[in-house]
Amino acid sequence: MTILPPVFLLILTFSSYTSLAAPTLNATDFIRTNCQITLYPQLCYHSLAGYANAVQQDPARLARVAVALSLSRAKSMTLYVANLSRQADYAAEPRAASALHDCFSLLGDAVDQIRGSVKQMRRLKSGAGEELRFQLSNVQTWMSAALTNEDTCVDGFEDVEEGALKSDVCDRTLKVKEVTSNALALVNSFVAKVMVP
Q1: Distance in angstroms (rounded) separating the CA atoms of residues 86 and 120
Q2: Percentages helix, strand, coil for the chain, rounded to the nearest 5?
Q3: 111: Cβ contacts below 8 Å, ≥ 6 apart
Q4: CA–CA dist 174, 180 (Å, integer)
Q5: How far apart are the C-alpha atoms of 52 and 137, rounded to whole Å?
Q6: What's 36's DSSP letter?
Q7: CA angle 168-153-183, nearest 5°?
Q8: Of 161, 192, 185, the residue nearest 43 (C-alpha)
Q9: Orientation angle between helical segments 59-88 and 41-48, nearest 10 degrees
């Protein structure tokens, strides 16, 4: 029996996917080609190629998978920062504790925004009507806001003394931000394809 990671289970709800067979070359090429429009194309491809069977050659599915992956990464980072934040309450560095608490709050907001995007992507109506335009606009707005919150988390460490904690949190948050940035780029690409007059 194959045990699927949580993000994959979420993605299965996005498609009529029925097989766990090896992805076709066309599906992986589709992902590679679409990832070229992102700021981090290698990360995009390597993080999404494993979902080629779910994506096939469907830009809507690709955007959904990318947003779901972004949610998974943001949730993991939020839990990580929550644990560090509790430990920092007992440390001697109040600036670091404050930055961690702020980062936790910002990442929590980002998770809520990305979660809203996932839900909205699940409810997309086919066609190019006003409802679809509104739904996709919501996703773009929420993903952009999540990206801003992730950026702001990193910015909050500017006044924190250089050290392992600052480097660790900033580096990890930047990696989450890159995944979110890629997801937003793929959403924007999908919007451009379906909203052509």
Answers
A1: 33
A2: 75, 0, 25
A3: 71, 74, 75, 78, 146
A4: 10
A5: 26
A6: T
A7: 90
A8: 185
A9: 100
pTM: 0.85
Q: Are 80 and 110 in contact (CB under 8 A)?
A: no
pLDDT at 91: 74
């989450």: which residue's tokens?
Answer: 176
* Dist. CA 43–CA 41, nearest whole Å: 6
196 φψ region: left (φ > 0), alpha (ψ -120 to 50), beta (else) = beta
- Positive or negative torsion for Cα 34, 78, 142, 172: negative
Asked if residue 131 has pLDDT above 90, the reply is no
Residue that is written with structure tokens 């006003």 in the block: 130
Residue-wise pLDDT tens digits, 77-98: 999 999 999 888 777 689 999 9
Tell me the one-letter amino acid at 59: P
Side chain identity at residue 163, one-letter code: G
For residue 23, the 8-state DSSP code is P
pLDDT digits (tens, 9 = 90+) for 54-66: 999 999 999 999 9
